[in-house]
Amino acid sequence: MVRFMKLLTRDERPPGEEPVSDLVPELEVSRAKRVRVLLAAACAPLLFSYTAIAAVLAVVSFAADRTRFSATGALLAAGPGWLASWQVELDLGGHPLGVLPLLPTLAVGWLVARAAARAARRVGGRTPADAVPVVTVIAGAHALFGVLIALAAGGSPIDVNPLTAFCVPGLLAGLAAVAGVAKACGLPAVVRDRFDPVAVHGLRAGALGLAALIACGAVVFTAATALSWSTVDSLFEPGFGASFGLFVLSVAYLPNAVVAALSFTTGPGFSVGSLTVGMFGYQEGQVPGVPVLAGIPSHHAVWWPALLLLPALVGALVGWRIRAIDEDPMLRMRAVAVAGALVAFGCVVLGTVSGGRLGDGPFDPVSVPVGVASVIAFCWIVVPGGFVAFFAGPHEAPEPPGEPEVEDIAEVEEEVEPVEEPEAEALEDEALEEEAEEELARELGEDADEAPAEPEPEAEPEQDDVADDAVTESTDGSGDESAPGDDR
């Protein structure tokens, strides 16, 4: 048994040759499979959304009282309904309908994002370049389908602008597809690499702040609807058919109502025809008899400004999220400004898609003051968020007096540049030469501080004179010694 296990685990490769990787390389996706996957990603959400809208219209038509059900009519009406789900303005017998429900838009956008993510995984998408064909095919298919519906609706009571039917579904479907393939194709990593880290933190905090503001609007809308439940109940008719249609209509317009409540909570408010509801102003007017609008107050209340505490808390939450990203307070303030800009842009988009024309009657138009709402939302994020981010975050300790600052030391170190190697070698050679000259000077009896000089030409005669003097003295000395001998 042991011998058998050794045979199974023995490495047949020659010694020194190790495997580079144990991972099995992925097989390249064929061109035919890639085309099939892209076509499925483009057509699947189209067919599913169209079928779902046709089914809902058929159920509402079948349940309604005093109506004649027609499957063909439901299928034909599903085309304009599909365009309405992509926020394409319709014309009903010469009356514009621009206030379109946001819930179907969110549903079809989610379908497109899911189909795009699945297609990117099946074709082996790993880079942003791999996301381009997926997004292009999906956006192009939705744009072409919108044009076909607009052309087919020509001559019917429902009229659609072909250019709008081409651009709006294609643009929104493309954005949904980008959201779907972002994670699979590494788009977040590309954004992090291209943007400043402080800006990335600001974008994340801004997304959190926008979601928190939407949650505040949902809370206010839910509370207002609950307090007006008797009015909601009175708007539903006794019959199931009409009540079911009102219920479906109210559910479809729930996101629109939440956006209006968001605008009211931050201060600017909203308007429905001549009716204007704001935090500090109220103008009476007629309200459509739809259960989703039953929570609209009938008069101004003094306690409404207390709701401004909610957006202030959202701004503080954004600042608390940013407080620890950097020790420099000014960098934290810049991140808060980026978060406020993102929230303001989000309010512009939400306010634009949630309102519009509603016929030519007393309820036209339904709107949110987009410009004012965006500026006020920016202030709600920047003012309390900047205060919290500045004072709740870390601060650099002050330097004690008398000690040089770190920046000054760094500047001095930068000024004192290291000597290059050739210059250092030259300095060493000069030092060795000076030492050799000093030793030579000490040997010759000269001063060590003076540089050695070449012997002057006058030095030789001086030495000759000294020699002659020495010879003369020796001669004189020898004569003096012989003198006493002569006397003797």
Task: Outline the structure in words.
This protein is mainly alpha-helical. It is 66% helix and 4% strand. It contains 17 helices and seven strands. Helix 2 packs antiparallel against helix 4, helix 4 crosses helix 6 and helix 13 runs antiparallel to helix 14. The radius of gyration is 45 Å and the shape is flat. The protein starts with a helix and ends with a helix. The C terminus is likely disordered.
Describe this structure in a few short sentences.
This protein is mostly helical and 488 residues long. Helix content is 66%, strand content 4%. The protein is built from 17 helices and 7 strands.
Summarize the SSE layout with pairings.
Layout: H1 2-9, H2 31-63, H3 71-85, E1 90-92, E2 95-97, H4 102-122, H5 128-152, E3 158-159, H6 162-181, H7 187-194, H8 197-227, H9 229-235, H10 240-252, H11 254-266, E4 270-272, E5 275-277, E6 282-283, H12 309-322, H13 329-354, E7 366-367, H14 370-392, H15 406-415, H16 421-444, H17 459-487
Antiparallel strand pairs: 1-2, 1-3, 4-5, 4-7, 5-6
- Overall form: flat
Rg, alpha carbons: 45 Å
Strand order of the largest sheet: 6-5-4-7
> What is the element string, with H for helices and E for strands?
HHHEEHHEHHHHHHEEEHHEHHHH
Please outline the major beta sheet. 4 strands, antiparallel
Beta strands, count: 7
Identify low-pLDDT runs.
4-13, 15-26, 416-422, 446-488
Q: How far apart, in Å, are the first and last alpha carbons?
A: 133 Å
